[in-house]
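Per your request, structure below.
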């Protein structure tokens, strides 16, 4: 019986410690701490209580073994012994469960405060970067700056979500009802810890909101910088395009048309090229204006943008000058082609008139001096027209390519052929006139005297005058008397166009 009483007393001693000292110890560890260090200290305190609870488990296990032996030796006391054993086991399990829960709360407090510290470090780094100047000097550096900022913001958001979820879960865990070792409800005052957690979450939300506001400002600034550098980059591209169009105009459009259709095509091409260049210039102008506004908004130096705008104006000026030269060349070409046609028509018409004059003079022998003078006036005017054509062709030859030069020279050579034809006819007309007049003069002189006489040239005859006013043609006619008294006329042209000799 003494063994049974000693076992029962040991059971009561353990139960008394759990319900009195153990319960009091456990109730003193209901705080969660206000910092990471406080939470770590609470974990250490709970570790000591866990060690004590393990010692109690060992004692209870020993008492259970003793109870089994007592039941085998004293079967008649089995009910009492089993009742004491089961009661002790239930109280111990409830106590150990509460110790484990309290230890978990302390560990959760450590995790929560650790997350809080990490979030603080993350936001500190983000705020420090957000409060510095944006170090971006081109599109690439601006994109890199934006990428780094977005990465920090993403890390901050991720830390905030994790912290907030942990804090809410922690509060829910603290609000769970608890019972003591004998099943009675126990009121645990975690209100201070809950308030602390909510304050931390509120501060975290405010800190996050501040980071978001500064991030929006910096994001807007970086976006403006990207727009600025994009505008300036596109402005540079428009300048390159205009320069390429100007180079194309100078290199690929250095040609002249052979006819009106080709000239119309060249004019249309010039108009299209001008429209393209003008739209590009206007686009670049808008980009420069937008970049200037952005620079002023960002409080940056405006001198680089003014220099870029001046570069655009200079490029546009070069293109306009090249376009003006090209249009002038087209106009000169058109005038040249039109003049070629008109002069050829006039030369053909005058050749026809001179031919008619020669035919009529040979057939009728009539004096047509006035008609010859009018033809000579037309011939001089055409000589001036040919000289103008020569001047225009020289201008075009200096400003065009080899292929175009050959075409210009071919056209002018055609005019020269017409002119030489006219000069040959003209020399024949003069020779015909001089021969008819000399024959008539010789006949009259022979009636007066049978002797041979030398007849001097008719210096006052307009048909024999040297055409010194013409820049292209100058004709000298010399008449002498042959051995039989008949006049011999030599017509010499300074351009070696023709030389005629007729004897009457």
């Amino acid at each position: 019986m003494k063994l049974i009483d000693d076992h029962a007393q040991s059971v009561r001693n353990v139960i008394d410690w759990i319900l009195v000292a153990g319960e009091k110890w456990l109730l003193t560890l209901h705080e969660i701490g206000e910092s990471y260090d406080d939470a770590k200290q609470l974990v250490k305190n709970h570790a000591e209580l866990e060690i004590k609870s393990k010692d109690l488990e060992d004692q209870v296990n020993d008492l259970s073994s003793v109870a089994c032996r007592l039941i085998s030796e004293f079967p008649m006391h089995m009910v009492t012994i089993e009742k004491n054993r089961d009661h002790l086991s239930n109280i111990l399990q409830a106590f150990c469960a509460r110790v484990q829960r309290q230890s978990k709360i302390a560990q959760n407090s450590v995790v929560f405060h650790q997350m809080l510290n990490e979030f603080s470090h993350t936001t500190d780094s983000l705020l420090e970067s957000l409060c510095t100047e944006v170090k971006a000097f081109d599109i690439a550096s601006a994109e890199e700056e934006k990428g780094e900022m977005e990465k920090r913001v993403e890390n901050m958001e991720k830390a905030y979500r994790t912290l907030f979820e942990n804090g809410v879960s922690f509060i829910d865990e603290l609000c769970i009802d608890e019972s003591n070792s004998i099943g009675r409800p126990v009121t645990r005052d975690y209100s201070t810890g809950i308030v602390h957690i909510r304050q931390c979450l509120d501060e975290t939300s405010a800190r996050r909101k501040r980071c978001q506001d500064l991030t929006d400002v910096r994001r807007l600034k970086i976006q403006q910088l990207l727009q600025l550098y994009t505008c300036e980059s596109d402005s540079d591209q428009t300048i390159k395009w205009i320069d390429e169009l100007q180079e194309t105009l100078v290199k690929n459009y250095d040609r002249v048309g052979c006819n009106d259709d080709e000239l119309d095509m060249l004019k249309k091409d010039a108009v299209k090229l001008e429209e393209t260049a003008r739209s590009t210039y206007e686009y670049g102008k808008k980009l420069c204006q937008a970049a200037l506004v952005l620079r002023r908004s960002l409080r940056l130096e405006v001198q680089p943008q003014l220099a870029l705008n001046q570069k655009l104006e200079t490029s546009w000026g070069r293109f306009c000058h090249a376009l003006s030269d090209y249009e002038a060349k087209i106009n000169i070409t058109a005038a040249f082609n039109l003049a070629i046609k008109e002069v050829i028509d006039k030369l053909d018409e005058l050749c026809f008139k001179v031919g008619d004059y020669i035919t009529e003079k040979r057939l009728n022998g009539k004096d047509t001096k006035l008609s010859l003078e009018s033809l000579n006036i037309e011939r001089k005017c055409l000589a001036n027209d040919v000289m103008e054509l020569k001047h225009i062709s020289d201008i075009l030859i200096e400003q065009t390519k080899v292929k175009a030069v050959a075409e210009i020279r071919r056209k002018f050579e055609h005019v020269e052929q017409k002119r030489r034809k006219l000069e040959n006819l003209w020399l024949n007309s003069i020779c015909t006139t001089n021969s008819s007049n000399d024959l008539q003069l010789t006949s009259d002189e022979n009636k007066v005297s049978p002797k041979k006489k030398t007849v001097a040239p008719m210096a006052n005859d307009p048909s024999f005058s040297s055409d010194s006013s013409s820049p292209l043609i100058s004709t000298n006619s010399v008449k002498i008397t042959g051995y039989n008294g008949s006049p011999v006329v030599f017509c010499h042209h300074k351009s070696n166009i023709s030389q005629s000799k007729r004897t009457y």
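Confidence is low (pLDDT under 50) at residues 439-504.

Regards,
D.
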